[in-house]
Amino acid sequence: MNLLVINGPNLNLLGMREPKIYGHATYSDLVQLLEDWAQSAKVHLEIYQSNHEGQIIDKIQEAYYTCDGLVLNAAAYTHTSLAIHDALAAVQLPFVEVHISSVSLRESYRQWSYIENLALKTIEGQGFEGYLQALTFLKNYLSHSH
Prior knowledge:
- Homododecamer.
- Its EC number is 4.2.1.10.
- About 40% of the residues lie in helices and about 20% in strands.
- The N and C termini lie close together (about 10 Å).
- It is built from 5 helices and 5 strands.
- It is globular, with a radius of gyration of 14 Å.
- It has one domain (about 1-145): Dehydroquinase, class II (Rossmann fold, 3-Layer(aba) Sandwich), CATH 3.40.50.
- Helix 4 (about 80-90) links the parallel strand 3 (about 70-75) and strand 4 (about 95-100).
- A 5-stranded parallel beta sheet has the order 2-1-3-4-5, with helices on both faces.
- Helix 3 packs parallel to helix 4 (about 80-90).
- It has helices at about 20, 25-40, 55-65, 80-90, 130-145; strands at about 1-5, 45-50, 70-75, 95-100, 120-125.
- The protein has about 150 residues and is α/β, with parallel strands linked by helices.
- The longest helix has 17 residues, at about 130-145.
């Protein structure tokens, strides 16, 4: 099984970015956690981060040919990018939307998601654990749908 995690803008700054919201763990900590999960779950996992909308769209399009499903934290693009929505709609890969913080409890402009209607599930406010929940859900979903 080939899975992909895509992280959007500013997630590379975890650990220094608003620690009251995102905590003190770094992006490297997140990557290590995900790699450890993949090894124990016997899943091939690619982890990708970009601050650029077009690169995220390119990665979603490439995933159509290489991945069984993906976990997406589109970060701020969640609330602004119809283009990412359209890429996800085009490739129709199963995916789980994830957010480290509880976006539904934050500023009003963060409470809208362009992608949630396409996602199998949305997980928010669970910190890094939310990624593990998303990957486990996706793995189980894919295992039972094939």
